[in-house]
Amino acid sequence: MADLLAARTLMALALGFHILFAVAGIAMPLLMAIAEWRWLRTGQPTWLLLTKRWARGTAILFAVGAVSGTVLSFLLGLLWPRFMAFAGPIFGLPFALEGFAFFTEAIFLGIFLYGWERVSPWLHWASGVVVALSGALSGVFVVTANAWMNTPAGFRLADGRAVDIDPVAAMLNPSAFGQALHMALAAYAAVGFAVAALHASRLLRDPASDFHRKALALALAVGGAAALLEPLSGDLLARQVALTQPVKLAAMEGQFRTERGAPLRLGGLPDVEARETRHALEIPGALSLLAFHDPQATVRGLEEFPRSDWPPVVVVHLAFQVMVACGSVMALAALAGAGLAWRHRALPDRRWYLRALVACGPLGFVALEAGWTVTEVGRQPWIIQGVMRTSEAVTPVPGLLLPLLATSLLYLLLGFVVLELLRRQVLASPVEPGRSEGAR
Amino acid sequence: MTPEALLAGALLVALVLYGLGAGADFGGGVWDLLARGPRAAAQRELVAHAIGPIWEANHVWLILVVVLLFVCFPAGFAPLMTGLFVPLTLLLFGIVLRGSAFAFRAYGDVSDRSQARWGRVFAVSSLVSPVMLGACVGTIAAGRLPVGTALPPRLFEPWLAPFPLAIGLLTLALFAFLAAVYLTLETEQAGLREDFRRRALASGVLVGALALGSLGLARSEAPLVYGALTGSAWALPFHLVTAACAVAALGALHRRRFARARALAALLAALLLAGWALAQYPWLLPPGLTFAEAAAPRQVLEPVLLALAGGALLLVPSLAWLFRVFKGARPRG
Ligand code: HDD
Ligand code: HEM
Ligand code: HEM
Fold it and tell me: Which one of B71, B97, B100 has the shortest CB-CB distance to A96?
């Protein structure tokens, strides 16, 4: 039992670590490609400087993303060999396709980072575009694999074995589209807001810096657009969950009883023993409306399902509240920015707004981790919803505490070093072309 | 040809390319660790310069190997991952530390001291990973992995043995040899080139010695592979070709035909791996599991073959371009 807990913690740690870098691998190439395109079109050297600056940070993030992703490919087998023996052939196709996306991404990133003097400017830019596309694709592919664990499809069970396997149908499982879209938007929103916060914080010190103004405008446009779309795609996904994973929905919402016209609960703390969610702000009928687009629809509560099939309700409910809260604040910040920009026909650079942006910097990453907690913990006790339990999947190898501790230490160290290196890079504001002093 | 035979071939190709590319990147770390003499700093610089743009692409071959294994040969994947838990975990630690340290050193504009520290981490982890990778191969070839037992796995016994460790050392030497040979073509500076020429010759001789030693050990430790390597119809021609290739590679190095040496060294590495694969085929995990027994159903294998073919159409020109951009237009030896 202790080994199962260690395996789950290790898996969660490795995934939670990798995703931080993976989103940078998805979104930074887009930002860089846009910046470089601006340079090619306008010839303003600031855009070139910005592209090169971002590229330095991205190189570090990408390297850590690549090695931590490698850990994951092995870890799936090292920790869950029975799961992989069963599921590998069914949900493996997206992993194989993802492999090619990785190749394309790594190849063209090499050219993008090191090829400034070796290929023509437009070819260089095109390489950046390819990196951005293949980064997004690799995220999409791996998320369809995860969606399959939530809504398995493309096979039939006969005596506990999978028969009639259809890898394409498995890849196009019911949750695949919604999760992939939500994840891609999450990457742009989280990274866009974090980058915007970094440059906003520099602008507060040096309001005239053209470099930071351009950087902020671009990051805020990308992050803000994604943050506005994210709640819409979240709603799409929630309706999918309501249809296919009613237990997860009930846990997310702290819905213990089956109810017609169920309320939406904001905040609150589920009490599993008493089977009720206390201290929540309830909006009557709103959950039925959101989940089924009908304020009178019936929402099935946890009481309908055997206790042994419940996920950890408190964790799932709180994580969902955290994600939605972060998402709402980010969407508001994006709206405010759009409003300010429209009214003044200029970059929204009011000091209060810049301060708000700095405060919003980490929210996307918090929402990202919270959202994955909802998805993965909300699926428990299943590793494949309704098909295989997590406890049946775990490796027989004993002593998993040791690799767990070692990995935690290693990732703690790496995370610390990456933050420190990025901090130094950000602090060292570049000497801008056309300005005599290096702005600090 | 059956789909599983084609996919076994694809696995071999991916492993060979991993060895030729990422293997040499690991070897670069070995020469970073062993950098000596008046040009030590320049040697390290050259290694970093050569690896920088390509190591992440080279690295993906390993991921392809893992993915092909679990998608196409699921019955073999579980025993592999359970029986090789410890060396694979160490391999991963090596990979993570090496990649991160390399990026920290290259992109963190920090003090010399911290650069040197990350350089050290990069170099040491470049030693660990190839030995573990080779040990895994040796464990499989020696038939030391149990298949389908319900017993709790033994963590160390399968791989902590003379034959797997010998293959581990052979892998390390081979990767270092490849790196040294490639590096002769990465510089126009005669002194540096001579440094790596000497290193290539020395490590080449070491590879030969370790290969012969491992073959000797295989007789008692890996009888199945040994039997095929000495008894089958292709054995004699194979050994002749391999030996000729080795002699020719060393000869080319000796006469400073560096471009030719590079091609021959790569061929030699490919031959060594192919020899093992041929000798072990049709066994995935001798003596208990063949590729055919471990294979997923046809409906799974065929889309994967299609994906591989389509992917190759995309991949081959892209990779060719990458290497032309960074490895072309260098002085020929
Ligand atoms: C920037 C990050 C971010 C933000 C702002 C939001 N989400 Fe999210 N959400 C994620 C990032 C995320 C994610 C990337 O972490 C998840 C985990 C799995 C997935 O596909 O996306 C996720 C999962 C996830 C799920 C679970 C899907 C499943 O288990 O199948 C639901 C129902 C929502 N989200 C709904 C929302 C709603 C209604 C939001 C409104 C504000 C929202 N999300 C904002
Ligand atoms: C990167 C984003 C992801 C994060 C942050 C994440 C998070 C987590 C967490 C927190 C757990 C532990 C659940 C628990 O023990 O209660 C877990 C388990 C797991 N996840 Fe994910 N996950 C992510 C993506 C994926 C993807 C894409 C896959 C596979 C395709 C996957 C496969 C698994 C498996 C196999 C387990 C172990 C079994 C289990 O506990 O359910 N995860 N993950
Ligand atoms: C079980 C889950 C996962 C596995 C097995 C996995 C595997 C990997 C591997 C092997 C790499 C390295 C590729 C290289 O060398 O270039 C990688 C990188 C990457 N992964 Fe993951 N990954 C997982 C989860 C995710 C998730 C949930 C996302 C995002 C949605 C994601 C997005 C990426 C991206 C964009 C990269 C490119 C490298 C980077 O930017 O850091 N991965 N992943």
Answer: B71
Q: In angstroms, what separates the C-alpha of B118 from chain A's closest C-alpha? A: 11
- Tell which residue, A181, A169, A263, has the closest CA to residue A229: A181
Ligand nearest to the CA of A134: 3
pLDDT at residue B271, as a whole number: 94
CA-CA distance, B138 to B172, in Å (whole number)? 13
Upper half-sphere CA count for residue B193 (Cβ side, 13 Å): 18
Q: CB contacts < 8 Å between A and B, how many?
A: 207
Instruction: Please identify every stretch of chain B with a pLDDT value under 70, giving residue numbers as ranges.
Output: 108-112, 149-152, 329-333
Start-to-end CA distance of chain A, whole Å, equals: 54
For the full predicted model, state whether its pTM sits above 0.80: yes
Distance CA B87, CA A132 (A): 35
In sequence order, which residues have a C-beta less than 8 Å from that of residue A310 and are 6 or more positions away?
A247, A251, A272, A302
What Cα–Cα distance (Å) separates residue A219 from each residue in A204, A415, B296? 16, 23, 45
- A161 near B CB under 8 A: no
Q: Are A73 and A66 in contact (CB under 8 A)?
A: no
Q: A230, A258, A235: which is closest to A363 by C-alpha?
A: A230
> Do B107 and B115 form a contact (C-beta atoms < 8 A)?
no
State residue A434's pLDDT score.
Answer: 52
Cβ within 8 Å, pair B110-A399: no
d(CA A364, CA B163) in angstroms, rounded, equals 51
Instruction: Kindly report the nearest CA distance between residue A95 and chain B, in angstroms.
Output: 7
Mutational pocket test of ligand 3: of A71, A138, A191, the residue with most ligand atoms within 8 Å of the beta carbon: A138
Report the distance separating Cα B173 and Cα B44, nearest Å.
18
| DSSP-derived 3-state class of residue A378 | coil
Expressed in angstroms, the distance from the first to the final Cα of chain B is 41
Beta carbons of A229 and A187 less than 8 angstroms apart: no
User: What gap in Å lies between CA B59 and CA A110, rounded to an integer?
Assistant: 12
Q: Answer yes or no: do A395 and B85 touch at CB < 8 A.
A: yes
Residue partners of A284: CB distance under 8 A and separation at least 6: A261, A263
Given a contact cutoff of 8 angstroms between Cβ atoms, the answer to whether B268 and B274 are in contact is no
- Considering every ligand atom, which ligand is closest to the CA of B54? 3
ipTM above 0.90, yes or no: no
What are the tens digits of pLDDT across the range A226-250?
999 999 999 999 999 999 999 999 9
Paired strand residues for A269:
A278
Q: Is A406 an 8 Å CB contact of chain B?
A: yes
Whole-number Å distance, alpha carbon A206 to ligand 2 midpoint, is 42
> Which ranges of chain A have pLDDT less than 70?
1, 429-440
Q: Provide the shortest C-alpha distance from residue A385 to chain B (in Å).
A: 20
Structure tokens at A359: 């405060």
| Interchain CB contact of B56 with A (< 8 Å) | yes
C-alpha angle with apex A228: A225 to A232, nearest 5 degrees?
A: 130
Q: Which residue of B has its CA nearest to A60?
A: B103
Please give the number of the atom of ligand 1 that sits closest to the Cα of A249.
Answer: 32
In eight-state DSSP terms, residue A410 is H
Ligand 1 atom nearest the C-alpha of A143 is: 20
* Mutation to test the B interface, candidates A52, A67, A84, A419, most B Cβ within 10 Å: A67
Is the Cβ atom of A135 under 6 angstroms away from ligand 3?
yes
C-alpha angle A45-A48-A51 in degrees, rounded to nearest 5: 150
pLDDT at B333: 31
d(CA A171, CA A156): 15
B77 touches chain A (CB under 8 A): yes
Return all residues near B173 (Cβ < 8 A) that are at least 6 apart: B203, B206, B207, B210
**pLDDT at res. B149:** 65
